[in-house]
């Protein structure tokens, strides 16, 4: 077989080590710039049930809406634009659209609209965009990024009119959207979003919480100063693999001679008598994830048996962006996730991973 | 109390040794009882058919197998990914019954397989039950 075939497409893993109390640490920016989050999973060793304070934070996560067949230009009409989109903290992502096949639409909380569309749609739209970075010989996908907070895009301006005409008349794009807005939760938008939703078929969804207790299983020992896995800890890839195994209930007590699997928990390890695995799924906004992270940091305020806990956040694989406005594609699986390991002394490790069709995490 | 850690940032490129695959076996006459060992044997024989005794001699792991849905998670060294994937694609029968292997997800991170947003199903919770009406 050709040696070329033994190579794999590129993947990136960025590892950071710092302390939450340091002013210069940028962990909060990494959380807030990862806009579209699908799942959060928490692993706490030596913990039998979900602490009430953490459960409280999860219960206060924002609800999100799923609205069907919504014409996109409706979200760009003057009242909605001024009272909701431009006010910030408005998140919307098309549901059930695949970034490698379909037209995908996203509204970022920074007031940007991103249309990731195929070549035909792009040519009919007549809006200015760029060819997707992840093209293969021929360009088949284009990305249109529109800054709705720009003065030239204010209602009445020429470019605004053109945008409305193209999305209303030339290519009336309709899709199912997932929408979350902090303004609506606080009722600061004067009911504009509710008004719009009521004209279409929509449902309100709550993030789904699952907890699972892990029993009698090996668990890697981690030491905050040794992130490379030289002596006291295991290396980041092995640790993330172990987290994956725990999340999917994969057994790690195999023997080297086993026919099925030779996967074992990485060294150095210790036996965990019990542990907690808790997952939340839905259309989760970064603000909620940040408040969860703050609560997890407080977990060590009282003495605990464990010296670390972990929180993993998975992004939507079909989102047109991963962090900030960095273009995101799918290729083999479109992974974009990050993981915090929080230590007792407020040190943290942050792992950020992306696949082949993605920029380097920030 | 220990000293707070100093800031450090490292970027690993293609540093994972393995790739992980989530696959599903689809049988012509619906599902039946298959054990994990039989499933792995099916894949091994598929590899042997395509690449011969020597070409197929590379290790891979069946990390998990769910007999209910016939879904499994494989772990393979990067160098064996293309061979394994091609052999899976060409598996066409199991005990004289037509079958196919669907590859749902492939990633260099096992953790990524636990958070696939394409599995987000909002229709089940739908109070209107429109999906049911459509089917």
Automatic annotation (TrEMBL), chain A:
Supply the name of the protein.
Ribonuclease P protein subunit p40 isoform X1
Q: Which InterPro entries match?
A: RNase_P_Rpp40 (IPR013893)
The record's annotation in Pfam families points to: Ribonuc_P_40 (PF08584)
Q: Which PANTHER family match?
A: RIBONUCLEASE P PROTEIN SUBUNIT P40
Q: Name one GO molecular function term.
A: ribonuclease P activity
Entry's Gene Ontology cellular component terms: multimeric ribonuclease P complex; ribonuclease MRP complex
- Give the lineage: Eukaryota, Metazoa, Chordata, Craniata, Vertebrata
Please give the start and end residues of each transmembrane region.
none
* One of the GO BP terms on file: tRNA 5'-leader removal
From TrEMBL, chain B:
UniProt keyword list? tRNA processing
- Some GO term, biological process aspect, for this entry: which one? tRNA 5'-leader removal
Q: Does tRNA processing appear among the keywords?
A: yes
Question: What InterPro entries has UniProt attached to this entry?
Answer: Pop5/Rpp14/Rnp2-like, Rnp2-like_sf
Respond yes or no to whether keyword Protease is given for this record: no
Q: Which domain of life is it from?
A: Eukaryota
Q: Name one GO cellular component term.
A: multimeric ribonuclease P complex
Which GO-annotated molecular functions does the record name?
ribonuclease P RNA binding
Q: Which family does it belong to?
A: Belongs to the eukaryotic/archaeal RNase P protein component 2 family.
Q: What is this protein called?
A: Ribonuclease P protein subunit p14
Organism this protein belongs to = Clupea harengus
Read off the lineage from the record: Eukaryota, Metazoa, Chordata, Craniata, Vertebrata
Q: Report which gene this protein is encoded by.
A: rpp14
């Amino acid at each position: 077989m050709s040696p070329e075939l033994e190579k794999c497409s590129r993947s990136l893993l960025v590892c950071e080590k710092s302390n939450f109390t340091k002013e210069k640490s940028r962990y909060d920016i990494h959380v807030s710039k990862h806009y579209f989050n699908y799942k959060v999973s928490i692993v706490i060793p030596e913990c039998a049930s979900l602490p009430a304070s953490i459960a409280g934070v999860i219960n206060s996560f924002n609800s999100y809406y799923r609205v069907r067949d919504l014409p996109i230009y409706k979200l760009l009409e003057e009242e909605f634009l001024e009272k909701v989109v431009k006010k910030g903290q408005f998140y919307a992502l098309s549901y059930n659209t695949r970034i490698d096949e379909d037209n995908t639409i996203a509204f970022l909380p920074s007031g940007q609209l991103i249309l990731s569309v195929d070549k035909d749609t792009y040519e009919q739209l007549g809006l200015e965009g760029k060819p997707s970075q992840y093209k293969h010989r021929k360009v088949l996908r284009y990305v249109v990024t529109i800054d709705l907070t720009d003065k030239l895009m204010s209602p009445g301006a020429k470019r605004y009119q053109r945008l409305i005409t193209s999305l209303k008349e030339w290519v009336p794009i309709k899709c199912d959207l997932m929408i979350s807005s902090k303004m609506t939760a606080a009722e600061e938008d004067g009911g504009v979003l509710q008004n719009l939703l009521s004209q279409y078929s929509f449902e309100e969804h709550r993030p789904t919480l699952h907890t699972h207790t892990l029993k009698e299983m090996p668990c890697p020992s981690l030491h905050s100063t040794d992130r490379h896995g030289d002596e006291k800890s295991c290396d980041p890839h092995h640790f993330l693999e172990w987290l994956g195994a725990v999340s999917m209930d994969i057994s790690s007590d195999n023997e080297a001679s086993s026919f099925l699997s030779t996967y074992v928990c990485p060294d150095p390890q210790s036996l965990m008598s019990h542990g907690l695995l808790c997952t939340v799924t839905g259309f989760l906004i970064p603000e909620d994830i940040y408040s969860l992270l703050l609560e997890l940091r407080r977990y060590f305020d009282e003495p605990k048996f464990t010296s670390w806990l972990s929180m993993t956040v998975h992004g939507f694989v079909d989102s047109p962006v991963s962090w900030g406005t960095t273009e995101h594609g799918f290729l083999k699986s479109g992974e974009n996730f990050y993981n915090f390991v929080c230590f007792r002394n407020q040190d943290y490790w942050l792992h950020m991973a992306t696949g082949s069709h993605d920029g380097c995490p920030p | 109390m220990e000293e707070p850690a100093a800031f450090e940032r490292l970027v690993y490129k293609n540093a994972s040794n393995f790739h992980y695959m989530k696959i599903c076996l689809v049988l012509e006459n619906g599902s039946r009882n298959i054990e994990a060992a039989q499933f792995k044997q099916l894949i091994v024989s598929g590899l042997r058919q395509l690449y011969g005794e020597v070409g197929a001699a590379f290790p891979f792991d069946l990390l998990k197998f769910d007999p209910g849905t016939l879904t499994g998670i494989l772990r393979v060294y990067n160098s064996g990914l293309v061979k394994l994937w091609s052999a899976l694609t060409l598996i066409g029968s199991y005990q004289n019954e037509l079958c196919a292997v669907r590859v749902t997800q492939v990633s260099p991170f096992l953790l990524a397989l636990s958070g696939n947003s394409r599995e987000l199903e909002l229709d089940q919770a739908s109070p209107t039950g429109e999906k049911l009406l459509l089917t």
